[in-house]
Amino acid sequence: MLVVDDEQQILRALRVILREAGFEALPASTGEEALDVAALQHPDAAIIDVLLPDIDGVELSRRLREWTEIPLIVLSAVGDEEAKVRALAAGADDYVTKPFGPRELVARLQANLRRIAPDPEEALVRVDGLEVDLARRTVRVDGQDVHLTPTEFDLLRQLVRNRGRLMTHRDLLLSVWGPGYSEDTQVLRAHIANLRRKIEPPEGRRFIRTDPGVGYRFAA
Fold first, then answer.
1. Which of 26, 52, 31, 55 is nearest to 41 (CA)?
2. How sure is the predictor about 69, in pLDDT bands with cuts at 50, 70 and 90?
3. CB-facing half-sphere around the CA of 164: CA atoms within 13 A
4. CB within 8 A of 163, min separation 6: which ones?
C-alpha cells in the first residue's frame, strides 16, 4: 500500500496500522516521490494526506488517476463538503477526516479493495489452451505452468481484462509502467515479444493481436 505523508510520525503510525492488518506499506513523503513509488512498485491502493510539501493530495490523486485504477483514499483535517467533493472529483475513492480510528481506516481500505477485486467468474480466464489466473497471478499453456516476470504478467493482465478491445501503446505503458514511460514504445514492443514467446507456439494460435502503429488487443 502506498502511504503518502510528509510527517514521519504519521508515516510510522500508518505503517504499524497497515502491518497489523496484514498490509505492507510503501512510504513516500512528497507527491513526486509517491508518483515514482507508484510507477515502480505498483501498489494495490494509496493512502494520501492532503497536505504535502510539493503537490497537494488532491492534485496527486488526479495525476495518479490518469494512469491507475487502484483505490485512492485521501486523509485530511478538513471535513467540509467542498473539500470532500474536490478530492472525489479529482479521482479519490474515499475521504477520511482526521482524527480517525485505525479500525475505520483499515475497514475503508478493505472495502475499496473488495470493490476492485475480480469477480470469481472473471478471475480465471481460459482461451484456447491458455489459462490466466488473475487472482493467483499464474499462467498455464496446455496444462503446463509458464513463468512470467511481474511486468510481463501485469501486461498480460491488462490485455486479458480488456480482451477484444484495442489497447493503445499509451494505454498499456501508463497502466503497466506509469507516466514516466508513456512514450517508450520500444520497451512495450520488447515485453510483448517476450510475452508472445512464452505463451504462443511458433505456429498457430495468436492470443495477442497487433494493430500496427496503434497498439494491441487480446483475442476475445
1. 26
2. confident
3. 2
4. 125, 127, 217, 218, 219, 220
Residue 108 CA to residue 115 CA, distance in Å, equals 11
Degrees to nearest 5, angle at CA 210 with 205 and 216: 105
Place of cell 472525489: 88
For the chain, list the domains and their CATH numbers.
2-116 (3.40.50.2300), 120-218 (1.10.10.10)
Which residues have a Cβ under 8 Å from the Cβ of 114 and sit 6 or more positions away?
Answer: none
Residue 119: what pLDDT? 61
* pLDDT band at residue 2 using 50, 70 and 90 as cut-offs: very high
Q: Strand 26-28 and strand 138-141: pairing?
A: unpaired
Helix (H, G, I), strand (E, B) or coil at 163: coil
User: Side chain identity at 53, as an amino acid letter?
Assistant: P
Instruction: Give tens-digit pLDDT for 104-154.
Output: 999 999 998 888 776 665 678 888 889 999 878 899 998 999 999 988 999
H or E element that contains 18? helix 8-20
Whole-angstrom distance, CA of residue 189 vs CA of residue 200: 15
